[in-house]
Amino acid sequence: MDPVRNPYAPGAGQRPPELAGRDRELQQFEVVLERVARGRPERSMVVTGLRGVGKTVLLNTFKSMAMQRLWGTGKIEARPDQSIRRPVAAALHMAIRELAPRHRAPERIEEFLGVLKAFAMRDPAAAKGTSHWSPGIEVPASRGRADSGDLEIDLTELFVDAASVATDLGVGIALFIDEMQDVQAADVSALCAACHELSQSGGPLIVVGAGLPHLPSVLSASKSYSERLFRYARIDKLDRDAADLALILPAREEEVEFTQDALDALYEAADGYPYFVQAYGKVAWDLAPRSPITLDDVKVSAPEAEEELAVGFFGSRYERATPAERDYMHAMAQIGDEPVPTAEVADALGRKPSSLSPARDSLIKKGLIYSAERGLIAFTVPHFGRFLRAQPI
Ligand SMILES: Nc1ncnc2c1ncn2[C@@H]1O[C@H](COP(=O)(O)OP(=O)(O)OP(=O)(O)O)[C@@H](O)[C@H]1O
Ligand SMILES: [Mg+2]
Known about the structure:
Layout: H1 23-37, E1 44-48, H2 55-68, E2 72-77, H3 85-99, H4 106-121, H5 124-127, H6 151-168, E3 173-178, H7 185-201, E4 205-211, H8 215-222, H9 226-229, E5 230-234, H10 240-253, H11 260-270, H12 274-287, H13 295-318, H14 323-335, E6 340-341, H15 342-349, H16 353-365, E7 369-371, E8 376-379, H17 384-389
Parallel strand pairs: 1-4, 1-5, 2-3, 3-4
Antiparallel strand pairs: 6-8, 7-8
Helix pairs in contact: 1-2, 3-4, 3-6, 4-6, 6-7, 11-12, 11-13, 12-13, 14-15
The structure holds adenosine-5'-triphosphate and magnesium ion.
């Protein structure tokens, strides 16, 4: 059928035509926004899940919800090799720019921008003169606030000031952090401490995160009270009804239907994982001659969808691993699809567990595997074991 009208959207952070099966998380976030705006004590939210389950999409939806309530919003994507100081400064700059036109006292905005600039300029790279980066803020940097160089103190002061600007307008500020497991350890600790301070003062600023399933343990390793700061929402594959709706509703908009056995086969193939639902749906649409999309259409299109996934979804990640890391992952895949004991991986490779730590740690850093619980390791990418078993070693 007409590929131009194809509604499905496989891709990183691609907004799906129908955000299926996430009503509970959306409702929870509504409540968070409402309570924070009213100065009620409330835990912020952190979304966790495997690759391709829709964390980024959900975070973007939360951001839209906050913007609809006229909140100031900003978003960053954490990177393991980068301090969050500059990205946070840029994100709060965006948030304040959203609020500024509605604020009655321009000098309050200017005052905040001066603090924000001072905060941004304390970046270690800028201090060493190794960077010509400038925060793009016109006002002169102020002195004596958020510029101590200690990120915990500086973030706390910055957040308090930002929250106070939002309070003037009766709204809040939401700072979104994607790939939050990649925030450097020292920065995680500073971030949690700043959120903790802020939650005690009731200031309307929240940090909303998304990351891989081990994010809660990253946060609690840094600050034991992190569980009281964040409500963890683990999102997973869609159940049968939601997966069907994700396919049916966008098609219906285009007056296209699926036969029941086509839906059965699509669910079997995609296993409810949102990325796979979009990928199989997209190819089935393109190859089906007419509505309804039938079981035969799905059968004909599945190999092409699998091929695309093998290259784009699995292959691109596999490519990032070194030969030693690949061996490690192949050994994991041979053991099984559930989280596997690291000791068993070492056994399978005939190695001492300690000698494999570098490979394991760098795979974790690359976001390909995560430590499910102590001594257990699992793939972050759904169906990755199956993909590896089909690869020649
Ligand atoms: N609730 C949903 N219903 C239908 N499709 C969805 C849903 N959530 C996400 N998708 C689709 O799944 C794909 C992956 O979404 P997204 O990039 O948000 O995943 P992610 O969890 O952030 O993955 P990664 O860990 O790789 O960053 C996108 O193509 C998106 O359109
Ligand atoms: Mg993402």
